[in-house]
Write a structure and sequence with these properties.
- The chain is of the alpha+beta class.
- It is 33% helix and 34% strand.
- The chain starts with a strand and ends in a 6-residue tail after the last strand.
Length: 70
């Protein structure tokens, strides 16, 4: 099972910073995004998280079921 998720502004959830997918629990994926932003700001996404990560949160959009054999 995987998830499609979005990273949104806490005060204005209609402001979406990023959409991604993961097979990890969302709190773990969020933690990894924040950790990477402290190491490198090589993209606008990670630069924004580095400077304003406290303004964002991760939210599930939907669960995805997939067959790894195909």
């Amino acid at each position: 099972v995987g998830q499609i998720y979005k990273i949104v502004n806490i005060q204005n959830p209609s402001t979406i910073l990023y959409i991604g997918s993961t097979t990890q629990e969302l709190h773990i994926r969020w933690s990894k995004h924040l950790s990477r932003s402290k190491k490198t700001q090589d993209t606008p996404f990670y630069n924004e998280l580095y400077n304003n990560g406290h303004l964002y949160e991760i939210k599930s959009i939907c669960e995805v079921f997939y067959d790894e054999g195909k």
